[in-house]
Amino acid sequence: MAHDAPQATGPSKLVIRNIGLILSGALEKPILDGDTIVAENGKITAIGRFKDLNTEGATTIVEANGTTVAPGLIDSHVHPVAGDWTPRQNQIGWIDSNLHGGVTTMISAGEVHMPGRPRDVVGLKAMAIFAQRAFWNLRPGGVKVHAGAPVIECEMVEEDFKELAAAGVKLLGEVGLGGVKDGPTARKMVGWARKYGIQSTIHTGGPSIPGSGLIDKDVVLEADTDVIGHINGGHTALPDDQIRCICEGCRRGLEIVHNGNERSALFTLRIAREMGDLHRVILGTDAPAGSGVQPLGILRMVSMLSALGDLPAELAFCLATGNTARMRQLDCGLIEVGRSADFVIMDKAQHSPGKTILESVQLGDLPGIGMTIIDGIVRTQRSRNTPPAGKVPEVVAK
């Protein structure tokens, strides 16, 4: 298991050639024309046809062998604690295992599983700053974990949010997992967070851990957080009429998670499509959780929403990449010049009845992952968790 993954130590140039399909991560143009991607020093510099691009001087050449390249998947809702260990399941290596499921970036919704988690203002601020610093310095397997998400308490004042922001904290943990459970108090604190550039998420639905409680549509709409966390419940979802009310009553992000109600997930997707608001839908796992760690959770969500939600697979992948990147203001998640060179290379699983990877995903099958790349560095090759792919990429020069 890789903990502190190596970073590039000098100038680097990655060339991925003979790509069969490029998924951009962008809803407006989900498939790109090209067979080659070039990245220098961890950033994408060119996308197009091999014959038209400058591929000289490559330090790493990946022969894609006709496979599909997509942006690295983003998990918008995780609960990290300390390194690659989760006390919720007493499991080591869960982040690295998610990398084998194509996830290259994770967003903390609060480090709520920390044993003895402090509830006093000084302690919760200290823990958030510690988590932000720790995961800034530590990249398990190379995965980018955006952590340091304090769970707000009623005793906090505006100066606390200013102090957190000045220390580098950019996220709030799920509103509702701490002492703040009413709309007016939440709205006031979310406003303070937004004033200082801190993005907010709210718990939605029934209680999930001791100390959490029911957060219904009235609290969600009044709090006005940037992201409606697990709108399909984590695990217990709100009634359909309340979910519809939330979707129609605000313009914020609609987060669907693996560890939620699948029927409610499909209901949310349908409403978002009816409203022409597919760009608001993002995906997370809400792991680690009582149901465990799901290394293939994001892939499973993509497949489930495509197959049962009748959503073209190339658009379903956007929910797990570009949508989240734009909403979370990340420099990854899209295959475009200037973005981080974070990729997952995959193909349809062996013996899938689908003739292509997109058809196989829309039939409900998971793709086989052959490689993950973060910041232009190959992190994993054949996945230990997905079914074997029909075709696999290989590093042919380095």
Automatic annotation (TrEMBL):
Domain Amidohydrolase-related: 263-376
Gene Ontology MF annotations: hydrolase activity, acting on carbon-nitrogen (but not peptide) bonds, in cyclic amides
Gene3D superfamilies to which the protein is assigned, alphabetical: Metal-dependent hydrolases, Urease, subunit C, domain 1
Species this protein is from: Bradyrhizobium betae
PANTHER family: COLLAPSIN RESPONSE MEDIATOR PROTEIN, HYDRANTOINASE/DIHYDROPYRIMIDINASE FAMILY MEMBER
Listed Pfam families: Amidohydro_1 (PF01979)
Cofactor(s) essential for the protein: Zn(2+)
Name of the protein described by the UniProt record: Enamidase
GO (cellular component) term, any one: cytosol
CDD domains assigned to the protein according to its UniProt record, in alphabetical order: metallo-dependent_hydrolases
